[in-house]
Amino acid sequence: MKSKTNWNIKVAKFAANTVNPIRDVVENLKIEPNAAKKFIPLSIGDPTVYGNLKPCDEIIEAIVESVKSNEHNGYVASTGSEATRKAIAEYCSVVGAPLEATDIFVTSGCSHAIDMCIAALADPGENILIPRPGFPLYKTLSAAYGVQVKEYNLKPNDNWQIDLSHLESQIDSKTVAIVYNNPSNPCGSVFPEQHIRDLLAVAERHCLPVIADEIYENMVFSGHQFIPIASLTTEVPVLVCRGTTKRFLIPGYRLGWIQVHDRHSRFGVSFRKGLTQLCQRIMGANSIVQGAIPAILRNTPKTFFDSALRVIQENAAFVYNTFSRVPGLSPVKPTGAMYIMVGIDIQCFPTFKSDWQFIERLVGEESVFCLPGQAFNYPNYFRIVLTLPLELTKEACVRIAEFSKRYYVCNNIVKNNAL
Ligand SMILES: *Cc1c(COP(=O)(O)O)cnc(C)c1O
Fold it and tell me: Against a cut of 0.90, is the pTM above it?
């Protein structure tokens, strides 16, 4: 066969098909802040960027020790070191959902865990169900594998609970898993026990495993409870994806894992072997971080989690109370994670043809940037991150409120005035 004689390097389909909608949205939006006002981004889902939230001394010391010991410089088993898997199994075991070290697959962040679950369960042409609004990564990862996503609705007027009949109507013969996210990004919602049970009943009826994104485990406001989905079922096999990213405030460490909960061995031996083989593609997660994980999971004090949650909860209360009084905006009260969704009644802002324009003008005039709902396939909402120093959040909210009042036109009032 004739060899090539010119340079014609193309990008492979897999790379070209790996598209993150958030990046698309951010690149297509005109984001030109008003130079006269300090720019406040309420858009970045990284709790460390504002400097007010950082890991505690116990976490830092665990990393320093891991480096100094010289015991964690080499390759570890691709599914994770024995000590790390054991520590994670202990940290995640709850009544009703026991775990062994061998049920844990250590990954490079929770994203990687989700990626592996999709890759292990779905073939091209098959589909998985994902929430709408929801974390865009599920679609990004699936698309490159040729796996379809079918969205099921969450209900804003019902604390963003799943529309279970809609979910069930989306199931077809090609459906291989239900992706579930609790507490939720972008909604900031936390599901009550009965609702999780109702979802599990649907999964059981259709013999579908659940991929549970529980990266915000235990990040719930006072008076609310996080219930691990695996603790509520012995029948439905569940792959739980978690990590140290959000709760421990160390997204950059890239440490996550899959917990395989499967009382009746419905996943089977070949499925676990498949997960192991996927781990071998990149020879496992960072060894230094793995070396620190047992100490991080055991020594991080409750006061550390409590103080981060206090910041989030104070932000949540302020944003919710402020926007509840702003005509044309309807915040949905969050109960966990680190976000709030705010509805825009776009008909009351006739200056703007779409929520998109609302967001663009908001940046242009007030130098405040929130991610438009379209980033989560949910127009007429925007998402606010609740991890900023409270003073910054307050400043941003005052500006958003003034902006909204400036452009708000209520048809009823106009009519009444005319009479
Ligand atoms: C942040 C986030 C992740 C990703 O976590 P990493 O550990 O940084 O990969 C996964 N799922 C949701 C819903 C998230 O918000």
Answer: yes
47 lines ligand 1 (CB under 6 A): no
Domain boundaries, position 20 = 13-53+303-407
Q: How many domains does the chain have?
A: 2
Percent of the chain with pLDDT over 70: 98
Report the alpha-carbon distance of residue 79 to residue 71 in Å, rounded.
18
Last residue of one domain, picked from the residues 243, 272, 299: 299
pLDDT at 411: 66
3 state SS of 265? coil
The verdict on the CB of residue 107 being under 6 Å from ligand 1 is no
| Res 412 pLDDT > 80 | no
Q: Is 40 helix (H, G, I), strand (E, B) or coil?
A: strand
The response to whether residue 251 sits with its C-beta less than 6 Å from ligand 1 reads yes
Answer yes or no: is 417 within a domain: no
Check: CB of residue 343 under 8 Å from CB of residue 329: yes
Residue with tokens 């505690």: 56
Nearest CA to ligand 1 atom 5: 110
